[in-house]
Design brief:
The complex is a heterodimer of chains A (207) and B (246).
Chain A: H1 20-24, E1 53-58, E2 60-61, E3 72-77, E4 101-105, E5 113-118, E6 124-126, E7 129-132, E8 136-142, E9 150-156, H2 160-164, E10 182-186, E11 189-191, E12 194-195, E13 205-206
Parallel strand pairs in A: 1-11, 2-12, 9-10
Antiparallel strand pairs in A: 1-5, 3-4, 3-8, 6-7, 8-9, 10-11
Chain B: E1 40-41, H1 46-49, E2 81-90, E3 100-104, E4 130-134, E5 140-146, E6 151-153, E7 159-161, E8 164-170, E9 178-184, H2 202-206, E10 209-210, E11 223-226, E12 229-231
Parallel strand pairs in B: 2-11, 2-12, 9-10
Antiparallel strand pairs in B: 2-5, 3-4, 3-8, 6-7, 8-9
Classes of the chains: A mainly beta (207), B mainly beta (246).
Bound molecules: fe (iii) ion (FE).
């Protein structure tokens, strides 16, 4: 055959396993002296960064309602003006005091994860589609027993009007599930629990 | 890194049949940790098209040498010395530069340096089991390590993991984020492993088995294994003038 398609297949995923912290947060897992700090473990923005300071706290629950104590959570978000700190950001440059990516293990005893960041601004849906999305933060969860990283988003309970016109939330057919993506604002804290299964199963995305 | 304009095209859809499904009862932990409702599918948005950049300046001189990066001065980890090398490519076959590749593994006896690890194999005082690197302009990467051992794990009564190295790969857009495991050519344990078998397609499993690379072997020093990693490809922006819903 003359015409062949030469695309490669994406490398298949495998679980991060019980010791993902050795690889991604070695200092947290007790292996010190190889890397100075654990990558992504600091705040996502320094003190000079523009925007409202928030602390995100939450748990990842399994199908019996027990919090996972071996999960690793990564987040990715825009700065306070809605710009991503990425070469693929074409609309301008993000706040130089803002990094935008974070990685945290759950607490070894309780499983709670905590991120210190700023509230993101609104971002356009796609480079060619200027409709605005509501402020949101991408979450990516891996752990033992999770065969491929789970991707979801946290929106904000104090952004009802923006949430109502968000083009991603609009794709969710079962409207009662939208609430699983809304972080509950309590002052500076935003509570966001992730449920892997059950009545409150979080909406996960394939994007 | 090359100064080509950043790519902003949409990523090819992930082939979910090629990847393991969430629920794989042979791997018991997945039973209570697998979402049971359908994923919400849509082409990525600005959020997934973008991602952070990691600079080569964050790397220390022994970050990619697990034989010495945890060892006392003048000492080394115990085990068979190996070189693992390969390229990070996208689905269009192009090398992906500037990719953060992190790896972790058990020691030569199959034991991890971790509080919760209970396998009776000995800890190697000179082996931490973690390293990282960033791909070069052609997407190439390499690291030195020792051949990890197989180890038993509580799943079935007598389940063992084949020798493997865990990989975390951070490409250019968050949509490319991937964690996987590398296995070694010729290992009879691969076919028996419930975690390997979460992948339904035998050809997909082949993609995780690194061949012995005789030409890259360093005589009198290290054998080499080649492990190429493929991340999701991107549509060319030439074809991106299409509005949602048109
Ligand atoms: Fe392992």
């Amino acid at each position: 055959m003359v015409q062949t398609l030469a695309y490669l297949k994406e490398t298949p995923s495998q679980t991060a396993g019980p010791y993902v912290h050795i690889g991604c947060t070695p200092n947290f897992s007790g292996i010190s002296g190889i890397f100075e700090t654990d990558l992504g473990s600091g705040p996502l923005a320094n003190e000079q960064a523009r925007g409202e300071r928030i602390t995100i706290r939450g748990f990842v629950y399994d199908g019996l309602g027990s919090p996972l104590k071996d999960a690793l959570v990564e987040i990715w978000q825009a700065d306070a003006d809605g710009l991503y700190n990425s070469p693929a950001e074409t609309r301008g440059r993000a706040d130089p005091n803002f990094f935008g990516w974070g990685r945290q293990p759950g607490d070894m005893q309780t499983g709670e994860f905590v991120f210190h960041t700023v509230k993101p601004g609104r971002t356009p849906f796609r480079p060619n589609d200027p409709r605005l999305m509501a402020p949101h933060i991408l979450f990516w969860i891996v752990a033992r027993g999770i065969n491929i990283g789970l991707q979801t988003r946290m929106y904000f309970s104090d952004e009802e009007a923006a949430n109502a016109e968000d083009p991603v939330l609009a794709r969710i057919e079962h409207r009662q599930r939208v609430r699983t993506l809304i972080g509950a604002r309590e002052g500076e804290t935003v509570r966001f629990d992730i449920h892997l299964q059950g009545e409150n199963e979080t909406v996960f995305f394939d994007m | 890194m090359k100064t080509a304009p950043p790519e902003t095209g949409a990523f090819f859809a992930r082939d979910r049949i090629w990847h393991p499904p969430a629920l794989t009862p042979g791997y018991k932990t997945s039973v209570l940790r697998s979402p049971q409702k359908a994923l919400i599918s849509l082409e990525g948005t600005t959020t997934e098209l973008t991602g952070p950049v990691f600079g080569h300046n964050m790397l220390g001189p022994t970050d990619n040498d697990l034989i010495v990066n945890y060892a006392r001065p003048g000492e080394m980890a115990i085990g068979q010395r190996i070189l693992v090398h390969g390229r990070v490519l996208d689905e269009r076959g192009r090398g992906v530069p500037g990719v953060l590749v992190e790896f972790w593994q058990a020691n030569a006896g199959g034991r991890y340096r971790h509080k919760k690890e209970t396998y009776l194999a000995a800890i190697d005082p000179n082996f931490g089991g973690v390293g990282r690197t960033i791909t070069d302009d052609e997407g190439g990467y390499w690291f030195k390590t020792i051949q990890p051992g197989a180890y038993p794990w509580p799943n079935g009564v007598n389940d063992w993991r084949p020798a493997h190295i865990h990989f975390s790969v951070f490409g250019h857009g968050f949509a490319q984020r991937l964690i996987t495991q590398m296995y070694f050519e010729g290992d009879p344990m691969i076919a028996r492993c419930p975690i390997v078998r979460t992948i339904p397609d035998p050809q997909a499993i082949e993609q995780l088995i690194a061949p012995l690379d005789w030409n890259a072997t360093v005589p009198m020093d290290m054998r080499a294994y080649k492990f190429d990693i493929v991340l999701r490809g991107r549509r060319s922006t030439l074809f991106e003038n299409r509005k949602e819903g048109n």
